[in-house]
Amino acid sequence: MYNRVLCLLFVSSLALSQANILQSTVNVKKLQGILEEGLKSKDVGALYFAIKGLKQINAKIPEVCDVLKSLKYDISNLEQVFYVTNAAALANCLTILNPDLLGTPTRTLDKKDATLQEIYYAVYSLKAMGKGTIMDKEDSLKNLIQLLKKDDSPANYGYVFALCEHMGCGTWTASHAEGVLLAADETDARALHFDGGLPATALVLGSIARTYKSLKKASPLSEEQRYKFSTYVSGRSVSTPRGAALLLEAATALADDEPSPICIVIKGKKYVTSESDSVEFSITDLIGRPVRGLKPEEVVAQSATRLADDVVVLSKQPLTQKANEPTTFVLNLGKIKAQYGLYKISLSAGSKTANLNVAVLGEIQVSSLEVGIGDVDGTTSPKITTITHPNKLTEVLQADHLQKVSLKFSVRDKYNNPVSVQQAFVRVAPAAAAPADLEAIYVAEPSAKTYKVELLLFHLALGGSLCLYVLLWLQLSMFATLRYLAPLALLTFLAGQRLLRRLAQDKTR
Hints:
Blueprint: E1 5-6, H1 28-38, H2 44-56, H3 65-70, H4 78-90, H5 103-110, H6 116-128, H7 137-150, H8 154-167, H9 170-182, E2 185-187, E3 191-193, H10 197-214, H11 223-234, H12 241-255, E4 263-267, E5 271-272, E6 278-284, E7 299-306, E8 311-318, E9 320-321, E10 328-332, E11 341-349, E12 352-360, E13 363-375, E14 383-387, E15 403-413, E16 424-428, E17 440-447, E18 450-455, H13 458-474, H14 478-508
Parallel strand pairs: 5-12
Antiparallel strand pairs: 1-13, 2-3, 4-6, 6-10, 7-8, 7-11, 9-10, 11-12, 13-14, 13-15, 15-18, 16-17, 17-18
Helix pairs in contact: 1-2, 1-12, 2-4, 2-12, 4-6, 5-6, 6-8, 7-8, 8-9, 8-10, 9-10, 10-12, 11-12, 13-14
């Protein structure tokens, strides 16, 4: 059997840092699974967020009216009243609601010390039950502004923005949105979020997006803000229906913005071989949808540069949109599949460009192997034996502590051309099956299109010491280990001295 191995070039699949290009998207399918699981919950809050989140992605919602009717909740708890009334409104189950639910939000609005969050819960509870009228718009807005002066946190601005959606004071939101957006916190100069985390961020971004859409006005978010908020959102990990719904609210608001943030990543394998000469790229918005307005002919590999020597091997090569997969684009690299190495692909999608790393791999073979035994000090020429795969040595090699064993081999590709690999190793182990601790692995040094390993007694002694260390943990006692280690340590010391002396002599020649 002809022995072949695949070149092992471990390549990072992450794109290089690109301004205004997303490195990842929000996994909508995973979030949908969390939300669907939340439909089984007996907690009224979890059920509300599960229904809300599924509505946001237009997913099918099963019949939940009986579940809502059977839920136990505290009718005097405003937050729970908000959850149950709004869950019922989203699921078209208002007929199952108890009229006594109106009492708690009504009493809240009559309070003089109600917080903005309480007012938000109360107003939207009444709205869900068809009782959405509140006080005069102008007076109500003045009261809300007074409460904001006491606590102008981003979350409170989000509550006021959401209340203005209901009250019809969206112009006030539009006049304050840019200032609130400037108050966002920045992390590592890459991500933006509001104090209060995902709940505050989702509330502010969602209410601003809906308000500007109703006013038919352009988004107040700058391109930099849009991408930095998207970076924060795409990097969040959630496991509850509440977290999933909030993440979808923020992500959808950003993805529906214009121009939509773009994510360009390699899809699947990050390399090409002689058998497979194409790489697939995924180009989507923040929630994995096709990018609006992007034409297939606008997706182009502007260049491919070999990182080893900065040689440009292709330029302005169009990609092909994959059939029935509008977000997948295929780049054919057949022209360079015999030029092994790591390449930087500069890929443009419309006005956006990302740099991604792709490897060109090839099948290689050890074409010949020379085994030699010579004196450590090099006074005599080594005796060389050549072996061709899959043959073996016809005789057992004999060597003592004054000699060294050397191996030299070359690596070639399927076209019989010499190949330089990033790193080559030689494994030395008993011919019969044996535990892994009885083997030794050496790094082969490159030398004139070949690779060479010298085995100087020091390495063998050192390997033996490491084996003893393993055996100490597995079966030997400390005293038994020391008994074996004493002569081995002396041998390692003497062999090490000889090795250092020879290396010093080699440098002076």
